[in-house]
Amino acid sequence: MNEQVHDVIVIGSGPAGYTAAIYLARAGYQPLVIAGAITPGGQLVNTTEVENYPGFPEGIMGPDLMENMREQAEHFGAQVEYDDVIEADLTNKIKSVTTDGGEHYKARAVVITTGSQYRKLEVPGEREYGGRGVSYCATCDGFFFKDKQIVVVGGGDSAMADADFLTRYASSVTLVHRREGFRASKIMVDRAKANKKINFVLNTVVDEIKGGPQGVESVTLKDTNTGGKTSLETSGIFIAIGHTPETTFLNGQLQLDEEGYIVVEGASTRTSVPGVFAAGDVVDNVYRQAISAAGMGCRAALDAQSYLTDQEVS
Question: Which pairs with CB-CB distance under 8 Å and at least 24 residues apart come from 136-142?
């Protein structure tokens, strides 16, 4: 066990984690950031050009943006470790976390920014064409599909909203759903059905994504009733079948909502356990944007500072 007690441990990275680290480091707390072993920097490290993050009129590559944030946090004194937290004891006044590499760390406060993962179709071609026609974020990538034929997969509110949004750019949108009925609310379904650019293909799943050097070229569709397969030409496929928040390591210590997202108190980032704060996509199941995650990371840092100050006074 590492006997040093840090002021703050930030679990996770991405815009929320690195922003929290920047604010905490500038305040003199020298946070320890456990950024993740495989994809430190969050989902943006798998993104190509980011055009909607303020301050970059020509856009910036997702990995470059995360690298800049990490360097800024380290410049002010943050320590970054590339490992995954597999266990945490958050209920005591002094918190402790254990990493996959076998390290044990202690801290007076913890900020959780582990994010969420897009649910995947797990079909051939999905991984191969990620970032080259396969997308999980309509607001991030829709602009790149001007006057193209695209596919949206899903049957919830997110899929309906994505399909409707993408018609601003695409020549046509085909919404593919595995059942006849939808999980989406009636108002969202009605809005999508009223959009003349949206076609519906129901009782159907995507069986394979095909493409070439330039990216996605078509998808193979499978009828869930007959098993028959057809091919549909498309330049892109937007997968909107939900997210899975990264909260398994908490083992029920924090209050979660019915979908597994961490519950925070009002507009703050305070969780159900004193001294534990949460920010970014592990909390936010609505906006899921880099800029909103960064803003929440700032709030988490300020909430953590307030907590630590109160602890020092008491």
Answer: 136/238, 136/239, 136/240, 137/47, 137/238, 137/288, 138/162, 138/165, 138/166, 138/238, 138/240, 139/52, 139/165, 139/289, 140/47, 140/50, 140/52, 141/236, 141/238, 142/166, 142/168, 142/169, 142/170, 142/238
